[in-house]
Write a structure and sequence with these properties.
This protein is α/β, with parallel strands linked by helices and 950 residues long. The chain is 30% helix and 16% strand. It is globular. The structure holds iron/sulfur cluster (SF4) (3 copies) and FE2/S2 (inorganic) cluster.
Length: 950
């Protein structure tokens, strides 16, 4: 039988540099000081029986199954809690310890149901294993005494069950929830025989539990068990792959039965997640085989026509002939493409190659336009590289972290758990956010400062922080003198020192008390290692790029770049948004962030691609929309993006899409954009193809095919066939060959190959001759651009002002259980936590408007109107309301505006002047949407969904 057990060393590894030597059953071993006897025994080839110990948790020493004898010591110490000492001689198998262990097992088994044969954990249960290991054959205490065998099962969580009748109260779940996840949802209630595990006063679903699965993973019995294992039985093989949700990039073992996923188990060797997960990657993978998947290509002449299911050949030939027809009629630049930050690097690379070499223009863009394009621009300008500076492990060395415009517990949950671990160890925290995000106060973690600024004033707050650093003599002058451009620094220093940039002068504008800014600046500048983590609350503003540069300035002036524990760390939204940028998805840059106007770079690509390349940058997404409405842009190929839902000013986007003569959408579902399409290529999920994703720490991780593509072709194969039909041949037999081409053409990838990924597990770029195994943190000796460059960051208030008509500011974000436009998570049981977007509003604003909690309210801006339910909460500051954009029918982007970042056009999602009105009904837009959407769904032939057609 396949075993899904990964070698468990019993206790965590020690990081001590000092070594100690011991003998285990006569075998000498040398281990780092602090290593437990249990762990050292594994090195000596001896597995000591255990139940309460596991190597993801500190030893607890409660079960006493791991007792050993130590020469010269009295008693029988637990090997999991006994550290090795030089010269120690340990015996793990003596008649006495064998008897003690048997006795322990007898006690456990006498209070355990003997239903092994029908238990879902049968064959993969540590209790069952240990009974065998200690040689238990009979239970002298019988099964008639007082026991817990009738305890009620809790099945409230949609993904796992809690069956207390099987619980041995080893507390591994409680410790996992506390130490790994940092949620503290579980407790051991009562003492002795009465002790039991509880999810607080309520069931799992209604408790503090965030369904990360750490307790399920830690449980040695079937007490906490995935429902999928109950339903499908134990898996028969496993494949290591990478989560397709957020930019943390967790590695998972897809545990399979044939070609069906039974469960996704976080991979212990995953360097981004070290065996941890969140609810999305761990449990919300069922969308991949959801009945809504479209499995057949479809075409139609007009969007009012029903779809016609066709063969792949016909769909691809039709799409190619449409692109050719449109280019012949309207010109070479009348067509373009959008790459996907959900697809693999290899697929993204091919789409931009198709546009540049096949379409013959640079009209290619990606969804990073609407999230982290300012990061690319701002960091390139200041530091010389368009990516975060650190690996996630770096946080272990951080003494003070600034979290600005990010909500890691919801957006990047696995990394948030690492942050919380470090904060519990004593690091300090400064949160800069209009909302009281969860990190401001969670169990055992409290921010030293929460700078609750008004939306749109990030630059002012960062300038004020820099003002304090500079004027109070906290700048690291020697670091700056060595590492940064002196003239730019002198100018910047004079600028931030101006009285107008003082916390006192800016307090009214930012809404943040000057004393709090001063305190936060001193804390960050005075820390041994200070790190800044930021998200879309930084970038999605009219001054997004300025804010990124202000963050880089602040890190440089305090000497906080170039070593572990520091840095500028963008928390990337989608799984491969870093990769889609790296792969040349922007209209002005070829892969590796090299400008299309650079002759030498173009010549290199032309020699490999065998096509002349345009030296003019192409259209950005918003320009494509404008050009479509103007009539000069006529065809668009969109791979794996839902621009109709995710981009701002929905009605403008809809008009643009309606204006196209040919919209080709490649997706796994009939998403909102596909409802405006003329050609539909069914996409493949991450489970159906090989490739790589690159996470927020520049880590390239393998994505491995665990099942065949449901529609018969992986996305990269479709792009290859599309190019071929356009008359531009691409020759790849496997994504590894695409990566070989990427490596050949991209200086930061020259050392990357599938063989190396296989060997190392994952690689952080740059990976080349200078860094053959990759680069965990950047700018160590000098900045990539040579000297770091300070930029003047003049604060300019957003043009989006509140008025009497629109007196509130709307800001947007995500929540834990849903993901982005929700196309995946809405098709999973995650909807139990969030089945609709809601509007968070402060009690004062609600009262003024007569709004009650739970009531349907109208949200209005100068762009449009929608209606959603209000949640009255003090998380919000007065004057600011908040919502998410996971559900298309709530249509929050109907109200967001065309304002965008001055440098990159990243939309200003985070600031929209709105009014909220009580007693609402669905808006006109929502009515129209509902009718249009229903009609479109009915136009899809049933056979295309079932995959039964031609
Ligand atoms: S639920 Fe599992 S991990 Fe938790 S105490 Fe019981 S047996 Fe141990
Ligand atoms: S699933 Fe995660 S949050 Fe919930 S109880 Fe288990 S460890 Fe805690
Ligand atoms: S943290 Fe992100 S990458 Fe990790 S499991 Fe959750 S969604 Fe997936
Ligand atoms: S495994 Fe050591 S006491 Fe439980």
């Amino acid at each position: 039988m396949y075993s899904n057990k990964v070698l468990d060393h019993g206790t965590p590894a020690s990081s001590s540099a000092q070594q100690v030597s011991v003998q285990i059953d006569g075998t000498p071993v040398t281990v780092p000081a602090g290593t437990s006897v249990m762990r050292a025994a594994i090195d000596a080839g001896v597995k000591i029986p255990k139940l309460c110990a596991t190597d993801s948790l500190d030893a607890f020493g409660s079960c006493r199954l791991c007792v050993v004898e130590v020469e010269g010591r009295k008693g029988y110490p637990a090997s999991c809690t006994t550290p090795c000492e030089n010269g120690m001689k340990v015996k793990t198998q003596t008649p006495k310890v064998a008897a003690l262990r048997k006795n322990v097992m007898e006690l456990y088994i006498s209070d355990h149901p003997l239903d092994c044969l029908t238990c879902p954990a049968n064959g993969n249960c540590e209790l069952q294993d240990m009974a065998g290991v200690v040689g238990l054959r009979e239970v002298r205490y019988g099964y008639d005494g007082e026991n817990h065998l009738q305890a009620t099962k809790d099945t409230s969580n949609p993904y796992f069950t809690f069956d207390p009748s099987k619980c041995i109260v080893c507390s591994r779940c409680v410790r996992a929830c506390e130490d790994i996840q940092g949620t503290f949802a579980l407790t051991v209630q009562g003492r002795g025989f009465q002790s039991k595990i509880a999810s607080g006063p309520t069931d799992f679903l209604h408790s503090e539990c965030v369904s990360c699965g750490a307790c399920v993973q830690a449980c040695p019995t079937a007490t906490l068990m995935e429902k999928s294992v109950y339903e499908q039985g134990q898996p028969d093989h496993a494949v290591v792959t990478t989560c397709a949700y957020c930019g943390v990039g967790c590695a998972f073992r897809a545990e399979m039965k044939g070609s069906e996923v039974v469960r996704m188990v976080p991979h212990k060797d995953g360097k981004a997640n070290h065996g941890h997960s969140c609810v999305k990657g761990r449990f919300a993978w069922g969308y991949a085989t959801h009945p809504d998947r479209i499995k057949k290509p479809m075409i139609r002449a007009k969007i009012t026509d029903p779809w016609r299911e066709v063969s792949w050949n016909e769909a691809i030939a039709h799409a190619a002939s449409e692109v050719k027809r449109i280019q012949a009629k309207y010109g070479r630049t009348s067509v373009g493409g959008i790459t996907s930050s959900r697809c693999t690097n290899e697929e993204t690379f091919l789409v931009q190659k198709l546009v540049r070499a096949g379409f013959g223009n640079n009209n290619v863009d990606t969804c990073a336009r609407v999230c982290h394009s300012p990061t690319g621009y701002g960091l390139k300008q200041t530091l010389g590289e368009s990516a975060g500076t650190q690996d996630f492990d770096s946080v272990e060395h951080t003494d003070c972290m600034i979290v600005i415009g990010a909500n890691p517990t919801d957006g990047h949950p696995v990394f948030a758990s690492r942050m919380k671990q470090r904060l519990r160890e004593g690091a300090s925290l400064i949160v800069i956010d209009p909302r009281a995000i969860d990190l401001v106060r969670t169990p055992h973690v409290e921010a030293a400062f929460h700078l609750q600024l008004k939306p749109g004033t990030n630059v002012a707050v960062l300038n004020a922080l820099a003002h304090v650093v500079v004027t109070e003599g906290l700048a690291k002058e020697s670091y700056i003198a060595e590492r940064c451009e002196p003239e730019a620094y002198a100018k910047w220093k004079a600028f931030v020192s101006l009285p107008k940039n003082s916390p006192e002068a800016l307090a009214a504008e930012t809404g943040v008390p000057a004393a709090a800014i001063r305190g936060a600046a001193r804390l960050y500048a005075g820390a041994r290692n200070g790190a800044i983590y930021y998200g879309l609350g930084v970038t999605e503003h009219s001054q997004g790029s300025t804010t990124v540069m202000a963050i880089a300035n602040l890190a440089m002036v305090t000497g906080n770049i170039g070593r572990p524990g520091v840095g500028v760390n963008p928390l990337r939204g989608q799984n491969n948004v870093q990769g889609s940028c790296d792969m040349g998805s922007f209209p002005h840059e070829l892969p590796g962030y090299r400008h299309v106007s650079d002759d030498a770079t173009r010549a290199l690509f032309e020699s490999v691609w065998q096509r002349p390349l345009d030296h003019e940058p192409g259209l950005r997404i918003p320009n494509m929309f404008d050009a479509a409405i103007d009539g000069s842009f006529k065809a668009l190929y969109v791979q794996g993006e839902d621009i109709a839902q995710s981009d701002p000013d929905t009605q403008h986007v809809q008009k643009a899409l309606e204006s196209l003569e040919c919209l080709i959408v490649q997706d796994i579902f009939l998403n909102e954009t596909a409802k405006y399409a003329h050609v539909f290529f069914p996409g493949s999920s991450f489970l159906e193809k090989d490739g790589t994703f690159t996470n927020a720490e520049r880590r390239i991780s393998p994505v491995r095919k665990v099942m065949p593509p449901l529609a018969g072709m992986a996305d990269w194969e479709v792009t290859v066939a599309f190019a071929q039909a356009l008359g531009y041949a691409m020759h790849y037999a496997h994504p590894r060959e695409i990566m070989a081409e990427i490596a050949k053409l991209t200086p930061t990838f020259t050392g990357v190959s599938y063989e190396k990924l296989e060997r190392l597990g994952s690689i952080q770029w740059p990976c080349n001759d200078e860094a053959p195994t990759g680069t965990p943190y950047m700018h160590t000796q000098q900045f990539v651009r040579g000297k770091g460059r300070f930029f003047l960051t003049e604060y300019v208030a957003t043009p989006e002002r509140t008025t009497r008509k629109f007196p509130l500011i709307l800001t947007t974000g995500r929540i834990l259980s849903q993901y982005n436009v929700g196309a995946q998570t809405r098709r999973t049981a995650n909807t139990v936590w969030h089945d609709a977007d809601v509007l968070e509003i402060h009690p004062h604003d609600a009262e003024q408007r007569g709004i009650k909690d739970g009531e349907l309210v109208s949200l209005q801006s100068r762009k449009g109107e929608t209606a959603l339910r209000a949640v009255v909460t003090e998380r919000m500051q007065p004057g600011v309301v908040y919502t998410t954009f996971h559900h298309p029918e709530s249509g929050v982007n109907v109200v967001t505006t065309e304002n965008s970042d001055w440098a990159t056009n990243c939309p200003e999602y985070k600031v929209t002047a709105v009014q909220v009105v009580a007693h609402a009904r669905q808006s006109d837009w929502q009515h129209r949407y509902e009718q249009f959407s229903d009609a479109q769904e009915h136009m899809v032939p049933k056979t295309a969904v079932r995959g039964e057609g031609r």
